[in-house]
Design goal:
Blueprint (H helix, E strand, L loop, with lengths): L13 E5 L4 H12 L3 E6 L4 H11 L4 E4 L5 H15 L4 E4 L14 H29 L2 E6 L12 H21 L4 E8 L5 H6 L3 H10 L9 H11 L10 E4 L8
Parallel strand pairs: 1-2, 1-4, 2-3, 4-5, 5-6, 6-7
Helix pairs in contact: 1-8, 3-4, 4-5
Length: 256
């Protein structure tokens, strides 16, 4: 992993990451572990081997809690288990998502419900479960992963882009509601990050070239490129920043 700044307040922090054992999530877990944080993560597939690898690489072992985040009861239970093991969760990273391609006229209600459950509903209920502990601790940080896909008006996954846009609205409302408790809520919107899943399913030479031509910086994005921004949002370095969307996309979407 690229060498990152150290954020002293993250040492010993109780961090909970959804989808923290693969793709961007795995890079985030490693990044927080290297800060000395106590990291718990959930995913459906077995994360034991990843935990072994992280302990060997960082000297800090994460806590893997098997969970399907669409099962809200199980998600709430996992957050409670993380709090029991590590103390109240003061950094929540809602990272897990699924950008399954689909077409509007071929989308049925069950697919809509499935996609929203993963990409939006779970974010809300994870925040709801973590916030009381943050209130008791005197503050915390929630980082909701979105995407630039809805900003670009991309076709090919309309329910996913709907959820991404909803994440921004939810982020702003939670920031306003819980700011008095010193709970900060921000969104992080990556560009096209070349995870193994993206390479296996969606990346083509032509598509990648067209996307890189839209970036200001010509280099493909890797999961490690997203870690620094997430650490910043989680740490007290961003203590006055809430209700915002941080874009890390190589300069496809220029804001301001």
């Amino acid at each position: 992993m690229t060498e990152l700044p150290t954020f002293p307040d993250l040492k010993g922090a109780s961090v909970f990451i959804t989808g923290g054992g693969s793709g961007i999530g795995a890079a985030l877990t490693e990044g927080f572990l290297r800060q000395g944080a106590k990291v718990a993560f959930v995913q459906r597939s077995d994360g034991s081997a990843f935990c072994d690898a992280m302990e060997k690489a960082t000297g800090n072992r994460p806590l893997f809690l098997p969970c399907d985040i669409t099962d809200i009861g199980a998600l709430e239970g996992a957050i409670a288990a993380a709090a029991k093991a590590h103390g109240p969760v003061t950094v929540l990273v809602n990272n897990a998502a699924n950008d399954q391609r689909h077409k509007t006229l071929e989308t049925d209600e069950s697919f809509w419900d499935w996609s929203i459950a993963i990409n939006l509903k779970a974010y809300f209920f994870a925040a709801k479960a973590a916030i009381p502990g943050m209130q008791a601790a005197g503050g915390g940080s929630i980082v909701n992963f979105s995407s630039i896909s809805y900003m670009m008006g991309n076709a090919g996954y309309p329910v996913y882009t709907t959820a991404n846009s909803g994440i921004n609205g939810m982020t702003r409302s939670l920031a306003r509601e819980f700011g008095p408790n010193r709970i900060r809520v921000n969104a992080l919107a990556p560009g096209w990050v070349l995870t193994q899943k993206q390479k296996d399913k969606w990346v083509t030479p032509e598509g990648l070239k067209a996307h890189l031509d839209r970036q200001c910086i010509p280099d493909p994005l890797e999961p490690a490129d997203i870690v620094g921004g997430c650490l910043f949002l989680a740490s007290n370095a961003s203590r006055a920043m809430t209700g915002q969307a941080l874009v890390i996309d190589g300069g496809v979407v220029v804001t301001g």
